[in-house]
Amino acid sequence: MYSFLPIILLFVLFFLNIPIAFALMGATVFFFGILGTGMDLDLIMQTFIRSAESFPMLAIPFFIMAGSIMNYSGISKRLMNMAEVLTGHLTGGLAHVNILLSVLMGGISGSANADAAMQCKVLVPEMEKRGYSRGFSAAITAASSIVSPIIPPGIVLIIYALLSNVSVTKMFIAGYVPGVIIAGALMFTVAIIAKKRNYKPSREKRATIGEVFTQFKKSVWALILPFVIILGMRIGIFTPTEAGAIAVVITILIGFFVYKELKISQFPTILKETVYGTSTVMFIIIAANVFGAYLSWERIPFLLTGLLLKFNTSPWSLLLFINIILLIVGMFIDGGAAMIILAPLLIPAALKMGIDPLHLGIVMVVNIMIGGVTPPFGSMMFLTCSLLDLKIQEFIKEIFPFVITLLIVLFVLTYIPGIVLFLPNLLN
């Protein structure tokens, strides 16, 4: 029991609404400083500093900055116009646009919160004008935003790859098929709801081939960026970290010289958003690494692996147990933080059971992202409700069918690993 006191304290601090990074640091200092383990606290500070000295982690601020530039350079607007041309004629047209835009945004921003915030500002007001309820608009915005971290270059994918020591490129490639499947399942759910509520299409008729081609020409520079990133990493032109820097350069060039909407005066705001987003993520990562020093000291991963293997006699039962744990934790803790805390604990047991780490990574990401749209503390739930001045009760009522859909997809991805591993195996 003595060994698990910091974990108990950690969850107590979570429920007291202490910021995650400070809760992690507090639990670690309690263990090494108050319980008296013999380790000098200076070593904890060294771990804190050393954790930030990681070249692969530079990819995180670069992709955050690229996502911010998108919103000021006209890229997001072109992607939305392309999505409307392709899906606006369907029943519930703007809700389908919402989902497809998340797919297109995922190839550049990689952040669920960034995607949800952008769509709350840009697309939801238009949905309300067309007769969609605010609760439904918020629910589909939050639900579709989980696609963004799954389709490369998702920031959570990068974090998992670093924690599990798997190829970032392979992790990126593994995200494409699950991301598309989730988008398709959400669109199917929207079609059923829209038909019942008589939500009208945003276009009177299907776009002609000429209209699609015309809009494609306007949006092509925004659409090619994900392919440039993945292809460049695949053939070895640049590393994932360098890919982030290249994404920033390309979005700046597109904003200045192609769409001509990016202004020098906007850069202070872009840099401010980048610094804020990066500092939040990095502080959590560093604090989690410090907490990992306690886990290693007490051999918690080893003990947990033994416990999981004792009660789970097959990979399928272990995956079921992992899913239940992640769904519960994801309801209380932000996705990135949950990944950082739980991945080191769960990966050893999964590997001993022969579960592919790429498969496990996608299952974990999808699972944790579902937690982000569910009560009581889902981050995308709070974000959309606060930006749209919506009561949580209204959001919960509207999100329920989408959560059911996402859980069905999660079950399929969990027990048919070939869906996740198809593209990575094809490209080996």
TrEMBL record:
One Gene Ontology cellular component annotation held by this UniProt entry: plasma membrane
Highest rank taxon of the organism: Bacteria
Membrane topology listed for this record: Multi-pass membrane protein
Chain ranges passing through the membrane: 7-35, 55-72, 136-161, 173-194, 220-237, 243-262, 274-297, 317-346, 358-379, 399-423
Domain TRAP C4-dicarboxylate transport system permease DctM subunit: 7-419
Cellular location(s): Cell inner membrane
Pfam family, one: DctM
Keyword annotations: Cell inner membrane, Cell membrane, Membrane, Transmembrane, Transmembrane helix
Keyword Transmembrane helix: yes
Annotated GO MF terms: transmembrane transporter activity
Listed PANTHER family: 2,3-DIKETO-L-GULONATE TRAP TRANSPORTER LARGE PERMEASE PROTEIN YIAN, SIALIC ACID TRAP TRANSPORTER PERMEASE PROTEIN SIAT-RELATED
NCBIfam families found in the cross-reference section: dctM
Name by which UniProt lists this protein: TRAP transporter large permease
Organism per entry: Fusobacterium hominis
